[in-house]
Structures are given as structure tokens and as C-alpha cells.
Amino acid sequence: MTTQSSTEYEKYYVPEKSKLAVCATIGLILSTFGAASVMNDMTFGDGATTGSWGIFWFGLFFFSATLFGWFRMAIKENLAGLNSAQLKKSYVLGMFWFIFSEVMFFLAFFGALFYVRTLVGPWLAGEGEGGRMNHLLWEGFENQWPMPLTPQEAVGGVANQPIANMGTFESYEKSMAFGEAAAWYLWLPLWNTIVLLSSSFTVHIAHMGLLDGNKRKFNIWLGITVALGMLFVALQALEYYEAYAHFGLTLNSGIYGSTFFMLTGFHGFHVIMGMTMLLIQWLRSVRGGHFTADDHFGFEASSWYWHFVDVVWVFLFLFVYIL
Amino acid sequence: MGDHHHGPAKGLSRWLFTTNHKDIGTMYLWFSFSMFILGGAFAMVIRAELFQPGMQLVNPAFFNQMTTLHGLVMVFGAIMPSFVGLANWMIPMMIGAPDMALPRMNNWSFWILPPAFLILASTLFMEGGAPNFGWTFYAPLSTTYAPPSVTYFIFSIHVLGLSSIMGSINIIATVMNMRAPGMTYMKMPLFVWTWLITAFLLVAVMPVLAGAVTMMLMDIHFGTSFFSAAGGGDPVLFQHIFWFFGHPEVYIIILPAFGVVSQIIPTFSRKPLFGYDSMVYATAAIAFLSFIVWAHHMYTVGMPVAGELFFMYATMLIAVPTGVKVFNWVTTMWRGAMTFETPMLFCMGFLVLFTIGGFTGLMLSIAPADFQYHDSYFVVAHFHYVMVAGAVFSMSAAVYYWLPKWCGRMYNETMGKTHFWISFVGFNITFFPQHFVGLAGMPRRIPDYALQFADFNMMSSIGAFIYGASQILFLYNVIATIVAGKPTSEAKTWEGAEGLEWTVATPAPYHTFETPPQVR
């Protein structure tokens, strides 16, 4: 270690007492408690959810407001020069490991997809060692991906099912896979891919502009990135509408529908989060004049996040849509 | 802002709004102890019902809720937060940092825990009762057949996971970024090393647990079929995802305990830790292996033979780095000038009993043998030897070891030793007989059992009451120390102690190392 770093250590900013954590706790707990209550009211209760929604929305509002205040304070501290180079490194590490945890969250869902496709499907259809019960449980089920007929439908519905489960699983008429698209240029996921991949380039161009000190270039290209993000979300909404309205593809469409909507849904949610982050950075730059060539961690962190959702999409495109 | 040279604020706001790693560490420790008492109370209900064969005190449904909540509260409420509390207190002092890297987030990580557990505990009073599907919450017990309170359980798991992830990110950032000049990685105290690796494991697997409970939530409320064969899913998928989290989780619990023991044994042996480097590499090796052994919890569920073999051999491999550690601790004591104060007693208890738990683990790792042991009391005995005699004993050791530094008062040594011996004897009376009833075929998680198991179960229950009572003594000793213990101001409480935490004043000032020390 150099002597230089020891002067940095002296300035490490330890904030004073703060109400932020307690407020964020109140918001988080109320919103999760409210969400749980809403779901229980719908599934197990009489369907009256007004009170639970109230708790949820109040909690969510409180939580969002606290987070807004929290980030505002962090930004103000940075502008006031309280953040040493060492503290900024803490933020970098924090963001990196946060993204790593997000990667692991998606891994759980991809893992479920791989497991179901390579092992469960064949077993249910009577193949291999795990398939010995097929003639007792799911006689007539054939394994295919996407799964056009669920095991439940193969045996003739819930009534004929030898084991209990929850709900009915009805298959779709048409899946989102490339093979079932009318024509390649009418295949929405392809356009989604083009839009999202280009947005990764545009955000990189914006970053280059910022590093050159060219704020105009930065603002324009970041604005384009946010617009592309919005376009992606809109296309994704269109895809969901198509799925529900025309393809008969829903959350209830067996494991294909489950994995399709959960993977693309969580990805879409993360796109919305990343887009919001970038939008805030854009507003900070355009309205507040924030960011210089050597001090722009808020933007940098948001752009890492953006690249991360982009990479997740590449895997989604490959494993959910194409293969 | 600016002026850091002052003590804590007065009143409740000190604790609610604090950004101080020592305050937050203290809150974690007290919270985890209260959860330890709560989880212990659940255990007492279990052992009281099992005192005799037949149904006496509670009905089977409530018994299931007790086993479930006992496991959840002990794992997520008592053991994990206690080591996070220890990390908060000790890591900044051990590496010469002014505080944790992200102090406000640190406070948030703590404060979301108590309400999450409040929600979890409140499920006991909900219609349909508390979660009753075991702490491993296997589908379809936790989906198709679950009580409505499962939804609250799911969300409290989400919140606990969030707390763990934020806490771990904070620890990683602190260790990687806040070390004093000269404190290179290979000079870090082993407790810091084990926590760095533990934090990595937490960041890697808590999101996977979040994924598992999210799939449950979707299956229950929104008609997906992840764990339903009728829709093309598979209940066994749940077990794979759960244990991908669950196996690293057991190392998340035990690695910080290894760290504690590696601090304490050298102190009372008055010798440096034997094989420091190999300890670091062994910890890393255990962490790596923990990701590729999860299915050894599922030998009997149905897996291709190749899978059984892979997971069996990979599991056995863990014995190698773990053996390295045990031998290093023993070799550290070899020809040391040993004394046996309470922390050392707990560490030696740890060493002996954890090794027994390790060996029964090795027995369980043998797939064909596990077909016999699976879900029997043998498994219960095995994991209590590593969880209680491993994690909880080392936690007790840590409290006795650092308590004088924390509060500037010395605990009562006689009472401490009494606590150890009653714990040690009570623990063994409780859990050693469970090996026998397990091997003889008594399944776990049942409120009633066949008559031939009666004697050993009564023994187990008596031991459990003794062990439970000894924790009241522990609580009394700690409170008595804080309130009226003999004041001590020696920076180095223990003659043989090494490390930066023993260079600061006793009791440790509110802020330490605002300017970093130079480490040789």
C-alpha cells in the first residue's frame, strides 16, 4: 500500500444518524405484507381486497419516496465533495455484487427451464429410468418442447388425474417459438432483440461522449437509449397481449407458459427498472447538469445494469425463443 | 456531519437511526439471542411432546408447525444474524477500518429482520395455522397442501434474503476496500477470511432461494406449474433449487464459526494458528465444493445413478479440506501453553462435537447407506451436532471471548464454565441417543413413535431441558457482566490474543480507527 492511500482513508465518510433505514423498513414491510394479504384475499378469502391493496400501495409509496430521498441524499453528499475515492470504490463494489446476485436470481429460473426440458419432460413421457410410472400416471403424454399438451390434458383433464394438484393447465394454441412464427419479419422477439442490443450500443456511445467531456453527445445518446428501452417494453407488452388474446398462451399453459412468462416477465421487470435508472440519470444530466468526465458513478452503475439486462436477454432469446 | 469525535446519541433514536457498526452489531446479537430463545421454546414444545410415546400435549398439526418454525427461526433468525452481528462488531476493528463500507444500508439490513420475523411468528395465530411443511418447505406440501399463511412465509423469506444480501454486499465491500494500509489479504485474521467467503456464498445463493419461493408463490396464486407434474413441472425441481441454496447455506452457518474458533484456539494455546494459508485455501475449497453437492440431500427422491455417484464422491471430497481444518486446530494446541477459560472450553467442545457431526455427515454422504438413514433421527442428530455444537457453541465462545472488549467488564468465569459444562452435558444427552433411535428406524418430524424408542426419547427430552436451562444461565451471565461485571480496562483482555481489535482501548470506543493503523 502506498502512503497516498492512507490520506484517502482519513476522509472515509461515515454518515451520521439517519432515518432512511427505518423509513425504508416501514415501506418495505407494509408493501410486502399488503401484497401477501392481497394474494391471500384473492386465493383463499372472499375476494375483497380493498384494505390489503390500501396497505400495499401505502407501503409502496412510502418505500419509493424513501428510496428517492435516499438517492437524493447520496447524490448531494457526492456533489458536496464528501465522497472520497475510497468511498466511491465501495459503491462500485456494492453495485457489482448486487448485479451478481441478480444473475443468480435468473440462474434459478434458467435452471428450472433446463431441468424441465432435459429431464422432467422425458420422464413424464415414460422415457428412461424416471419414466417407469408413466403408464400409471400420465398415460398418453408425449414429450415435446414447446409443450403442446400438458400431462393433465393428455389423461383427459383434472377428473381423470390420479394425483391431486392445484388448478387446471390448458395448453396454448400457438407458442412464441421461432418455428411457429408466420414469417421471420413478423416474429416479435427478433425485433425485441434488435432493439435491446442496439440500446446497449447507444448507452456505450453516450458513455464515450461523457468521457470525452461532450455532454451534448451524452444527453442525446442516453435519451435514445431510454427511448429504445421504452420501445422494448412496449413490444414486450404487445407480445404478452398477443399471447393472451390470440395464442391462448397464459401463465396457466403448463410448464411452457410458466417458464416463458416468468423468465420474460422478470426480465421485463428488470428492463423497466434499468430504464427508470437511466431515465433518472438523463434527467440529472439534462436538468441538473450533473456528471463530469471523471465523476459519473450514477450513470455508470445504471449502464452496467443495462448491459446486464441485455446479456440476460441474449440467453432468453437463445433458450426461450430459439432452441 | 463532520465531527466524528463524539459518543452515541441518547435514547431510542440511537438504535433506530444508527449508522455505527458497533450499535448495529449489538442489535443483531440481541435480536439473534431473542430468536434463539423463541426457537428454543419451540424445541421445548417438541421435546415435551416426545417425552413419552403417544399424544400428550399438542396435536400433530401443531407439532408440525413447531418443527417448521423451530428450524426456520433457528437458521434464519438465531444463527445467521448472530454471526452477522459478530461480523459487524469485529470486522472493522480487525482490519483497521473506521466502520462498515455502507453504514446506512447496514442499518437497513438489520431493521428489516425484526418485522420479517414478526410476520413469520404471527402466522401461528392465522387461520389454518403456521407453516407446517418443515423448514425445507418441500413442494407440494408447501404449495398444494399448504395453509394460507404460506404466503406470509414466502414474503418474509424474501425480506430475510434481502437483508442477507445487503449485509453480505456490505461485508464484501468492507473487506475488499477498507483494510488498513499493510493489511494484505493473507494477513487478515481468519474470522475476516471466513466471513468474506461466507458473504460470497450468501450473495450467490440467497437469490436462488428467492427464486424458489417466487415459483411457489406463482404456483399457489397464479396458476403456474413449476412444481406440478400435471402441468409438466416436477415437485423434485423444488428440491433441486432449494438444496442448491440449502447446501451452501449450511456452510454459511458453519464457516464464520470456523473463523471464530481459529481466532480463539491460538489465543489460549499461546501459539500462532498452525497452517494459516492452508486454512484460507481449505475455506475456499469448502465454499467451492458446497455448490456441487446439493443433491446428497435427495438420494432417495429419484435420481439417475450417475447423479447419485457424482454427488456422493463430491460430498466425500469435502472431508478433505474440513479435515485440514480440524488437524490445524489440533496442531495449534500441540505443545501450546494452554489454559482453559470459558471461550477455550467452548472451542474445544466445538472441536470434539463438530468432528462427530462431520463423521456422521460422512456416513450420510454414502448414497446406499443413506437410503437407510434418510429422514431418520440419525439425520437430526447429525445436523444438530454441526449446528448446535458447531455454530452455537462457537457463538457462545465468541461472546465470552470478546465481551470484555465490548463492554469493558469481565464476565464471571465460574458461571461461564458452569454454562459450558451444563451445555456440553445437556447437548450430548439430547442428541447422542438420537443417533441410536435414528439407526433403529425412528423417522424425524413425527409427534408419536413406537414403544421401543421410549427410553432414548425420554433421555433426549431431559437433555434438551437441561440444555435449554443452561442458556438462561448464559443470558444471566451476559446481563450481569454488562450491568455489574468487574471493570477491566486492559486493551488486551487475554494474554495470548493477537490482532488489531486488542490494540484499541477497552471498552472499545464508539468510533475506532478513524485514521487507519499501519499494519506491518
Question: How does this model look, in words?
Answer:
The complex is a heterodimer of chains A (323) and B (520). Chain A folds into two domains: 17-82; 88-104 and 169-323, Four Helix Bundle (Hemerythrin (Met), subunit A). In chain A, 71% of the residues lie in helices and 0% in strands. Chain A contains ten helices and no strands. Chain A has helices at residues 3-10, 20-43, 50-79, 85-124, 134-137, 151-154, 188-211, 215-247, 254-288, 297-322. In chain A, helix 2 packs antiparallel against helix 3 (50-79), helix 7 (188-211) packs antiparallel against helix 8 and helix 9 (254-288) runs antiparallel to helix 10. Chain B is mainly α. Chain B has a single domain (16-502), classed as Cytochrome C Oxidase, Chain A, CATH 1.20.210.10. A two-stranded antiparallel ribbon of chain B has the order 1-2. Chain B starts with 11 loop residues before the first helix and ends in a 33-residue tail after the last strand. Chains A and B meet through helix 1, helix 2, helix 4 and helix 9 of A and helix 1, helix 4, helix 5, helix 6 and helix 7 of B.
Features of the shown structure:
heterodimer; A: 323 residues; mainly alpha; Four Helix Bundle (Hemerythrin (Met), subunit A); 2 domains; 10 helices; disordered N terminus; B: 520 residues; two-stranded antiparallel sheet
Gist of the model:
With 323 residues, chain A is mainly α.
> How is the main sheet of chain A built?
none
Q: What Rg of chain B do the Cα atoms give?
A: 23 Å
DSSP summary, beta strand count of chain A: 0
Largest interface: A-B, 85 and 91 residues
Estimate the strand proportion of chain B. under 5%
CATH homology group of the largest domain in chain A: Cytochrome c oxidase, subunit III, four-helix bundle
- Write down the domain tally of chain A: 2
Written as H for each helix and E for each strand, in order along the chain, the element string of chain B is HHHHHHHHHHHHHHEHHE
Strand order of the largest sheet of chain B: 1-2
